[in-house]
Write a structure and sequence with these properties.
mainly alpha
């Protein structure tokens, strides 16, 4: 039983680490897009206006 709990903890920690790594990667990509002016900011209304042309 203890071994199974230990394995569960290890798997949980690995999943948490993988999610953290993915978030860091997305954040770095977002920063890069901002630096390249490949992204914009605005309100939801601005976003919908862009979508509708």
């Amino acid at each position: 039983m203890e071994d199974q709990q230990y394995l569960q903890e290890i798997i949980h920690r690995r999943l948490v680490d993988a999610k953290r790594t993915a978030r860091v990667s997305r954040a770095k990509q977002a920063k890069a897009n901002v630096r390249k002016h490949a992204s914009r900011s605005g309100t939801a209304k601005d976003f919908l206006a862009d979508l509708n042309g």
